[in-house]
C-alpha cells in the first residue's frame, strides 16, 4: 500500500518528437507532446522538466511549455490552459530543472489527464532545446468503489 506522504512521479506518455536520451524536442511545431494519465486519486505537488539541451539559440524565441488539466482523458472539452504548470524555458542550461508549483494541492481523479503542450517553439540560430517533463503527485488513499470512473471488468 502506498503512503499518502510519498511523492510519486507519474509516467509520461509521449505523443511526438522525442529524441532518445535528449528528450522532447523544443524546436518542433507547437503541439501536445505528451500526457500523464491519472490512474488513482492524487494531489499535485509540482510539475516540471529536466533540461537536457539548452533551450534557445543566440537570437530567437524562448520555448514555452504548458501542462493542461484534461477533465476527461482524450477529450478537450473543458481542458485547462496551463492550469497545472506554465514553464518559460529562456536560456536555461542543460542539467537545470524548471518547475512550477501553481497547481500544488490540485486533486486529480482517475480518468483525467494532464497534457504537456509545447506552446511556443524555439527559433533562431541554432534552434535548440530538449526537455524531459515530469509530474510529481501524492496519492490520496481511496476505495476503488468510491471512484465513479473506476469500473472493474467482468
Describe this protein's structure.
The protein starts with 6 loop residues before the first strand and ends in a 15-residue tail after the last strand. It is elongated. The protein has 154 residues and is an all-beta fold. Strands 1, 3, 4, 6, 9, 10 and 12 form a seven-stranded antiparallel beta sheet that branches. The chain has strands at 7-9, 13-14, 18-19, 23-25, 31-37, 42-53, 64-70, 85-88, 97-100, 107-108, 113-120, 130-139.
Helix content: under 10%
Succession of helices and strands = EEEEEEEEEEEE
Radius of gyration: 16 Å
Residue fraction in strands:
35-45%
User: How many DSSP H or I helices?
Assistant: 0
Q: Which CATH class?
A: Mainly Beta
What is the number of beta strands? 12
User: Which secondary-structure class do the elements indicate?
Assistant: mainly beta
Mean pLDDT: 86
Low-confidence stretches: none
Task: Fill in the CATH topology.
Answer: Jelly Rolls
Overall shape: elongated
Number of domains: 1
Mind summarizing the main beta sheet? 7 strands, antiparallel
CATH arch. level architecture: Sandwich
The rounded distance between the terminal residues' Cα atoms is 24 Å
Keywords:
154 residues, mainly beta, Jelly Rolls, seven-stranded antiparallel beta sheet, five-stranded antiparallel beta sheet, 12 strands, 0% helix, 42% strand
Amino acid at each position: 500500500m502506498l503512503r499518502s506522504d510519498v511523492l510519486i512521479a507519474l509516467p509520461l506518455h509521449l505523443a511526438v518528437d522525442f529524441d532518445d536520451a535528449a528528450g522532447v524536442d523544443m524546436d518542433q511545431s507547437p503541439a501536445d507532446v505528451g500526457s500523464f494519465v491519472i490512474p488513482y486519486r492524487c494531489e499535485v505537488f509540482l510539475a516540471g522538466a529536466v533540461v537536457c539541451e539548452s533551450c534557445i539559440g543566440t537570437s530567437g524565441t524562448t520555448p514555452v511549455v504548458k501542462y493542461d488539466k484534461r477533465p476527461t482523458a482524450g477529450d478537450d472539452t473543458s481542458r485547462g490552459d496551463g492550469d497545472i504548470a506554465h514553464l518559460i524555458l529562456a536560456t536555461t542550461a542543460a542539467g537545470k530543472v524548471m518547475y512550477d508549483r501553481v497547481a500544488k494541492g490540485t486533486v486529480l481523479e482517475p480518468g483525467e489527464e494532464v497534457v504537456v503542450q509545447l506552446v511556443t517553439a524555439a527559433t533562431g540560430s541554432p534552434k535548440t532545446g530538449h526537455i524531459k517533463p515530469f509530474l510529481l503527485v501524492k496519492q490520496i488513499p481511496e476505495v476503488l468503489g468510491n471512484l465513479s470512473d473506476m469500473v472493474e471488468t467482468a
